[in-house]
Structures are given as C-alpha cells and as structure tokens.
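User: Structure please.
Assistant: Input sequence and predicted structure:
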Amino acid sequence: MRDIKLRAWDEDLKAFVPAFLDESGWYTYHRDTGVKSNGFILTQSTGLKDKNGKEIFEGDIVSAEIGSNKYYHPVKYKNGHYIAGTNLIYSTVRCFKMEVVGNIFES
C-alpha cells in the first residue's frame, strides 16, 4: 500500500502550504500570522513522476510530445483514474514522456 501524499493550495496566500489533519478535519496553519485556516484546496499525488523525476499531482499541467506536436493538459481525477486530456495516466512508461510545466492555480 502506498502513502497518500497531499498538498494544499492556499487561496489567500496564493501558494502551496503544508496541510494537517486533526479531530476537526483538514486545516493549514499560517506561520506568519498564527492563524488556522480552512480556505484551501487539497490535491493528491498520482504516485507517478514525470520524465524529470518530479512528482505529478492532481491539478498539475503536463506537457507531452506526440510526433512533432506538443500538448498541454491539466491532470484530473475522473471515474477512478488520473487523466491528462483524454489519456489515462497509469504507468511510469507513459509518464516518462510527460513533463510537469505548472499547475492550474499558478498558471
């Protein structure tokens, strides 16, 4: 069984921040202000890495070359699978050709 890895996009800070879980649910903690917040979006790792070894998360934008064409697609979770465009992301072979170039929050 693999570990579930999450990252949190903080809407106020416009940045990824650590997320924590306690008895009341998920939250982020702003070190600068000492304020606990729930104004964030959690994204989960696909468990795969791109051609540069960077972990691929839901919400990342990946580029892929097919022939002489380059395509850009956000990674989404749909019907029990991670997809980029209309293609399933399910193997390291497929991800070997992909590169994380940004994410839907910052791009």
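The two ends are 33 Å apart (CA to CA).
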